[in-house]
Write a sequence for this structure.
């Protein structure tokens, strides 16, 4: 969901500028679900937009977005202690690594908007894509091993891809809140091309 503000004093001919806040529900899917369990996470971002609208039927949007995507994962791909004789996987295994992952990105979106209604308020469909570059990761991990208290471990192997692609589709509604300002609300569905998390070796304990 994107919530943004457009000011009429920012309009230049057929173009205008805005700023928006983006809130996201993050769903990641593991390529090996028997060895890992990823919970839905939360994402947020702030975006500076530039719109070009040559007529009343359509518009193009671009800009710059700074965003954070987060998720939590239980990783069963490493086996410790009493689990060594019991095989691998989530069933019956008491040793695992529990991680919280946060990845920060800068992105450049390109989006096309087609107006359904464009009078006092504007209702429109939107579709586009975005290239996102990873700025840094902020990860933490706890090792849960059979018979021992949880211990913090090095989580540096949970680095995200440096560059990912995103496709999105949604709709938007823009309406006047003041003679010089408009507010827009945009529910979106987004698909990320790839977020790859490398499989760890034996983790290093943090003292």
């Amino acid at each position: 969901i994107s919530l943004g503000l457009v000011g009429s004093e920012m309009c230049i001919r057929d173009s205008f500028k805005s700023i928006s806040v983006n809130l996201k529900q993050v769903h990641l899917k593991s390529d090996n679900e028997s060895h890992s369990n990823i919970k839905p996470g939360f994402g947020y971002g702030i975006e500076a937009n530039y719109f070009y609208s040559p007529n009343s039927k359509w518009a193009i949007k671009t800009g710059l977005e700074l965003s954070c995507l987060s998720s939590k994962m239980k990783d069963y791909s490493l086996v410790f202690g009493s689990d060594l004789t019991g095989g691998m996987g989530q069933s019956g295994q008491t040793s695992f690594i529990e991680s919280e992952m946060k990845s920060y990105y800068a992105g450049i979106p390109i989006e096309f908007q087609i107006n359904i209604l464009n009078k006092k308020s504007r209702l429109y469909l939107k579709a586009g894509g975005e290239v996102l570059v990873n700025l840094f990761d902020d990860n933490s991990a706890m090792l849960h091993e059979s018979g021992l208290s949880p211990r913090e471990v090095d989580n540096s192997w949970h680095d995200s891809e440096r560059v990912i692609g995103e496709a999105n589709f949604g709709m938007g509604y823009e309406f006047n809140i003041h003679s010089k300002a408009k507010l827009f609300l945009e529910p979106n569905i987004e698909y990320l091309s790839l977020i790859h998390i490398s499989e760890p070796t034996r983790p290093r304990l943090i003292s």
